[in-house]
Amino acid sequence: MSDDKYVVYENKRNGTRFYTSFNESCNYEDNEYHSIVETNVSWMTANLLCKETVEKTIEVVLDETPKELRSPRMDKFIADMIRMGQ
Q: Which of 31, 59, 67, 74 is the most exposed place for a label (fewest CB within 10 A)?
């Protein structure tokens, strides 16, 4: 397994989470849109922290999807894609 490290952010507006690569030379701070959940963590930890909000992420994505693109089949496809990506 890789020694790469990650930073986990949480969206202040909707509570969804995402992670990105950690770089020791960068200064990670909360801002108007995101708060930092954890820094310098393993992929496994970053992934687990994001999985805590996966259902909320699905809800937000579906709420923001245009109505003309929504159907039970498409909603299931999007939800499964998000779950598999986590």
A: 67
- pLDDT tens digits for range 33-79: 999 999 999 999 999 999 999 999 999 999 999 999 999 999 999 99
Asked if residue 29 is part of any domain, the answer here is: yes
In a domain, 14, yes or no: yes
Place of tokens 């496809």: 77
**Domains: count for the chain:** 1
